[in-house]
Amino acid sequence: MKENNLYTYRPKSMTLHEVLSRIYHISLREVGIMRQNPIYGFCTVIFPIVVIIFFTTLMAGGQPTEMPIGIVDQDNTTTTRAMVRQLDAFQSSKVAGYYPNVNAAREAIQRNEIFAFLYIPKGTTSGLMTSTQPKVSFYYSNVTLVAGNMLFKDLKTICTLGSAAVGKTKLQAIGKTDDEVRTFLQPIAVDTHLIQNPWVSYNIYLTTSMAPGVLMVFIFLLTPYSIGTELKFKRSRQLMKMAGNNIYIAIAGKILPMTLLFLTMMYGFEFYIFHTLDFPHPGGVIPLLLMGLLSVLACQGFGIFAFGLMPSLRMSISISALWSVLSFSVAGATYPLSAMDPEIQSLAQLFPLRHYFMLYQMCEFNGYPLSYAWFNIMFLLMIAVLPIFTLRNIKRAMLVYVYIP
Amino acid sequence: MQNENFFSQVKQGLLDTCYICVKEMRGLVTDEGVLIFCVLVPLFYPLLYSWIYNNEVVRDVPVAVVDLSHSEASREFIRHYDAGSDVKVAYMCNSLDDAKELIGKQQVHGALYFPEDFERRLGRGEQATVGLYCDMSLMLHYKAIYQTAMAVAGEMNSRIQLSQSNSFTNRDDETTTKPLDFDEVPIFNVTDGYGNAIIPGVLMLILQQTLLLGIGLAAGTARENNRYQDLVPISKHYNGIFRIVLGKSWCYFMVYMVMAAYISLVVPRMFHYISLVTPWTILGLMVPYLLSCIFFGMTLSCMVRYRENVMLLVVFTSVPFLFMTGVSWPQSNIPSFWQGVACLIPSTFGVRGFLRISSMGATLQDISVEYHALWIQTFVYFLTTCMVYRYQIAATRKRAFDHMQAVRDKIELAKQKKLSSQAK
Fold it and tell me: Quick one: signal sequence residues (chain B) (predicted)?
């Protein structure tokens, strides 16, 4: 068999045993390569673990607490001080500074000392006594969205309570019972049920999609990397020879060790957050296993596809990098996809992380049957088989392409 | 004589610096990978991200309603709820199970539940409850559904209170329902927009990450094109650490000043994000930010063996780096260990500073912590860059010397062989 007619060479049909043994040997060779190049160890094990620890420890508290808040109390009476103390006692807020006027407090926000402040003008207490409806204001900065939203809630509650306290005193003075007072102040009460995440924990909310997202970035990048380095180090012909000139066998053997390794990481991560940290998982084990498997395969599929599209290490890995980083935004885990423009909504379907997130939140987090997510399962499978369109290209590259740095 | 020597040395140094700078620039344009990450990505990625988040707020989140009360009061509540800008009543269901089914199919993201005795209790003067069920898989959906329900309930409560109180004038009504009035004032991010909050961080991060990638790729290419896999070639121009470090960094600095101007001034205006920058403030932030990123990148680039490895090392860090800046998880709540790690990275201070300049109109005095931190980073990373380059140069010299020695030995050996053969 000569080198130049390798491309057209058709091997005799192989027996199943031969196919498996070839895949096995290529996999062994791949494991050897992975052991020699430390970058594999870092990207498959060490960095993912660091990232998982990062997210789970960063948001270990679940909700941001004790966020700094400023007070501009120009009234300075027992009533207003009681109000400030009450605000300080709230879980999310901590009174971090007192400022003489609104301008000083605004500058404190610009200096990053506080996120919001409460302004109580002079005459508030006397206004309450004479019932002339005094007015307080609170200013909150949504530049850090989470902080702004949570402090808004606290500040609004404290101001509403201020009103309620006055009403309560009045009603009690004319002899109403506590029950009557409550009914008068709040005839309609909203009974809120926060399904599956009653703590409004950001750890449960964000870690479950961000950490697998980072894991997927590694799969996205390492797949074209491992195929491309064959060309770079001129081992591709040796690989094809081991595969009996069959590109399917060559690729299967190459990605198999990585598939197993990433599956282990994915399941390890899921075991850690759902078992050790006990995040809500009413969906049970089966969706978890399926999610892990499908997302690993889909990311590898995309990686191979990208390499086949442009069989150069540099270009394919660049495409994978740019694509994988976009996933975090278009997955719609933070800013909902439905609020984005329709073009982006359709584009987002090409990102495995989007489907991972949908599958997770429907079938695992909310515990609906898998059939509800058939669309996402189908798309993950489609992305996983994308390489069949470009495998021919990879074969040609493996046999005739010369690496140019 | 001494003086002249000194000046000619300075002149030579400057010429060498310029030579290295030009060479680096040529590499930047001719190397596809570097061109993509240093020019195309900074130009187009900001546009893409801005487009993604340009709608800013979530409107009309679909909600299902289970109204078992079928009363005037419940219908009033539903009407007001539907009128809210953030939500819309998409389905009327007969039971909570129906609503649950709709949540599962992603048709709605929450449900309102009016029990059968809703209005009866109101009429009796008892407290009536309305059940609110939120799908918690998306915080912005939850926020829209929850806040609208609270607002509508509050408004209806005031009206019920009025009907029960014995007030005579409109003013009486106001003081009865709200003895203490209050104003809610969102400042800086007045739209309460997601894009306004996240885009400045993303923009600054794009600058840093593309610089790290670009510098790393260029270094990788230089190393691979070199015969001995050395970062620093042997040439009379590469005859000093400062020449190399300054020459290379000057090239990136020039390109990135343009990119930074584009990203921090043009992009926010194109998409109508809040931009309160003033010329000297933004210049004051960008100079140390870019310099610290460049030297940080140059320090890292010495650790890269193959050019593609730099992508494996840099790309995934984008998300953790963004979280460390405190854009999404408030800075005051980041554990101290990660605060410490964050201090090592230029983007931490770059993003914090830019957010406050761009979204809050802060001055350099207001961001003095970030400003000083960036200059300290610039200085420290400049030193580390010099150190790693010094090491590289020493390694190169040693290898070259060894190589020469080997060649010399070979010649010597050959000569001796020749001599001995002649002697025979």
Answer: none
Q: Do A241 and A92 fall into the same domain? A: no
A271 contacts: CB under 8 Å, gap ≥ 6: none
B324 half-sphere exposure, CB direction, 13 A CA radius: 23
What is the ipTM, given to two decimal places? 0.91
**Taking CB atoms and an 8 Å limit, are B308 and A202 in contact across chains?**
no
Residues in a beta bridge with B67: B114
Listed by number, the residues of chain A in 134-153 with a beta carbon closer than 8 Å to a beta carbon of chain B are 134-149, 152
Structure tokens at A233: 């180090």
Residue A70 Cα, gap to closest chain B Cα (Å): 14
Residues in chain B closer than 8 A to A324 (CB atoms): 315
* Res A16: pLDDT: 87
Q: What is the pLDDT of residues A379-400, one digit of tens each?
A: 999 999 999 999 988 988 888 7
DSSP for residue A405: -
Give how many domains chain A has, as a whole number. Answer: 2
Domain housing A249: 3-59+201-400
Question: What are the pLDDT digits (tens) for B373-406?
Answer: 999 999 999 999 999 988 888 888 888 888 888 8
B154 touches A: beta carbon within 8 Å: yes
Distance from CA of B155 to the nearest CA of A (A): 10
Best of A142, A223, A340, A360 to disrupt the B interface (most B CBs within 10 Å) is A142
Which of A84, A86, A110 is the best substitution to test chain B (most B C-beta atoms within 10 A)?
A: A110
**Amino acid at position B276, single letter:** L
Q: Is residue A239 part of a domain?
A: yes
DSSP letter (8 states) at residue A12: P
Are residues A109 and A44 located together in one domain of the fold? no
Task: Evaluate whether residue A190 is within a structural domain.
Answer: no
